[in-house]
Amino acid sequence: MYCDINYKTKKALREAISNGVTVTVFQPGGMFPSATDGNVSLEGPHYPLPHKWYARAKIANGAIVKLYK
Known about the structure:
Blueprint: E1 2-3, H1 10-18, E2 25-26, E3 38-44, E4 53-60, E5 63-67
Antiparallel strand pairs: 1-2, 3-4, 4-5
């Protein structure tokens, strides 16, 4: 899954979440439905750039509530 904002680094994503930014997620392509609650795997930056970071996150109502280490 991707974050709605194309964060170039996991550090930038972590800082946004700690600063209270609501970060939602989506599954590109539409082949698989996006989860709205639970744990998800994230990757970034968005395609076509090569993915340089990966993360696990807990989401509620489609927004990240916790980013795991």
